[in-house]
Amino acid sequence: MKLTPGPRSARGALLRGAHGESPLPQAVRVLSIDGGGVRGLVPAIVLAEIEARTGKPLVELFDIVAGASTGSVLALGLAVPGADGGAPRWRASDGVEIYKARLSEVFGRSPWQAVAGVGSLLHEKYDEGPLEALLEHYFGEARLSEALTNVIVPAYDLVSGDVLLFDTDRAKRDSALDVPMRLVVRGATAAPTYFEPERIGPPVVVDERLVVDGGIFANNPAVCGFMQAQQRYPGCDVVMVSLGTGSATRSLRLEEVKSWGLAHWARPLLNIVLSSASQATDHHLRSLLGEQRYFRFDPELDIHGCSRRLDDASEANIAALERSASALVRAASADLDRACELLER
Prior knowledge:
Helix content is 46%, strand content 12%. By secondary structure, it is of the alpha/beta class. Strands 1, 2, 3, 4, 5, 6, 7 and 8 form an eight-stranded mixed sheet that branches. A hairpin with a 4-residue loop joins strand 3 and strand 4. The N terminus is likely disordered.
């Protein structure tokens, strides 16, 4: 018998049928943060707003946090324990300041790099040194097992040719998987053509891995977070907050792209892959969970003059991203209030 899709209400009835129209008080709270380079400023601002409205750090609001690429900076960064081990070292407002003040160091090119051809077709665009120094400063030697909530970071291993999920819960149970957070983030943010892959091997772990950005398959890691919730708490109810880094509305025309070759397509193609993967995941989770359980916050970049580039850390673009995120917070204030009410148990 051939199956055909039912109406939207039927397609989204799985959890509603199992748990009722409204989420249960004991529902698992899941946060998902997209990748997007410097555009990570947008979810950082939304997260700071959530912390301000609830008066609580994110590790007390969410049971599972999934972060891809730049989202891994926030996901793990906000779960780093402080000196006493009980409270997080950083708050979301700190993340906002990092994106505003420090990313020009990461996405800057020296005169030597320009002369040497770094960033050409034959080299990665950026030196990884400034990124690694930034990660060492903010993460130190904190390891996955020390995270103050359960964090999932998707990446891709070039050695095995397979997806890789860094999982703080598994790291707590298996010391062989307990990797320093800064190395996880370094690999998870190694977007092809932008940064070199990160080698994670002996003596840190037994098996050698060559890690690149997990955004190539899960730029919106909401499905990763949802599946982890179901594996850890089988049959559980779920409340999902999904944060995007901005969607582009400008279309590409045939006249613009018809003569593009490999050199023209390389980085635009990466943006297209990341964007389409995020959109597909959004459609799936929206249909599955419904509006009472699923909250997606993702502004349109073009309205506020934001660049679609992952690496535009110019003052003008940072200011545009900040305007875009602030406008999103105002426009979606009612949804933010509803989400915060569900997050505060």
